[in-house]
Automatic annotation (TrEMBL):
Family annotation (Pfam families): GDPD
Gene3D superfamilies: Phosphatidylinositol (PI) phosphodiesterase (3.20.20.190)
Coiled-coil segments: none
Name the UniProt record assigns to this protein: Glycerophosphodiesterase
GO biological process entries: lipid metabolic process
UniProt cross-references to SUPFAM superfamilies, sorted A to Z: PLC-like phosphodiesterases (SSF51695)
MF terms in GO: phosphoric diester hydrolase activity
Domain annotation GP-PDE: ranges: 2-239
Organism: Enterococcus dispar ATCC 51266
Length: 246
């Protein structure tokens, strides 16, 4: 079965990396929910994709230069739709609480956003939270930064890790060199370029970002482990269509 990974939640129909987006990803039975984590100035785990707040809020500046209180004053939904004008930037703990409340039983994959700036102790803070109790869902980690995965592996040696990449074969080799890395999350361009050798690669492959039906069908045909999509509900239908047309 092809895993549906909800990219920043159901970010095609809700403001990305917000509680409405994650709630919708649960509602449509996503297999995996993906989110991004940064650290605020005062050490809180903040869920947002970019290092700065400008694209997805009404604020300006870097997450690492803002306190949690300052971040909580921001509007994180109006850029997407006026229906979400009261939406706030969530902390990782708030997302976890939502997933528990919504009875999520799939996988949460946490992207450690350390490829542009390696936040001191972000791996330790994240691992401390994730191991603080037993969650009713599974959690994995992923990152563009191989060093972050090396660090988190020492903290949680049994937790699944995946390396994110664009089109770099060097990164694939780095993943193959580490027995504790389960898979790669490459850009779809890499998959298309290397499709002839995918079956021989001893790694799970979950390409991003797959929103078009033709690409979903291509991934099904190539038997990728999963797809990372902004539209998990549509992707499920596309997969059903692909299987019916075989």
């Amino acid at each position: 079965m092809t895993q549906i990974v909800a990219h920043r939640g159901a970010s095609g129909t809700r403001p990305e990396n917000t509680l409405p987006s994650f709630a919708e990803a649960v509602r449509v039975d996503s297999d995996v929910i993906e989110l991004d984590v940064h650290l605020s100035k005062d050490g809180h785990l903040i869920v947002m994709h970019d290092e700065d707040v400008e694209r997805t809020t009404n604020g300006k500046g870097l997450i690492r230069e803002k306190t949690l209180a300052e971040i909580k004053k921001l509007n994180a939904g109006s850029w997407f739709s006026s229906a979400y004008q009261n939406t706030k930037v969530p902390t990782l703990k708030e997302v976890l609480d939502l997933l528990v409340m919504r009875n999520f039983r799939g996988v949460l994959t946490i992207e450690l956003k350390t490829d542009h700036y390696h936040y001191p102790e972000i791996e330790m803070k994240t691992a401390t939270l994730m191991t603080s109790r037993a969650w009713p869902f599974t959690h994995w980690y992923c990152s563009f930064n191989i060093k972050s995965l090396d660090i988190i592996h020492k903290l949680e040696p049994q937790t699944q890790l995946d390396l994110i990449l664009s089109t770099s074969n060097k990164k694939v080799i780095e993943a193959l060199d580490r027995s504790y890395i389960e898979g790669i999350h490459p850009k779809m361009d890499w998959v298309l370029k290397n499709e002839a050798s995918l079956a021989d690669l001893p790694l799970a492959i979950r390409p991003w970002t797959i929103d078009e039906e033709a690409l979903v069908k291509k991934c099904v045909a190539l038997n990728t482990t999963g797809i990372i999509t902004n539209f998990p509900e549509k992707a499920q239908q596309y997969i059903r269509n692909a299987k019916r047309s075989k």
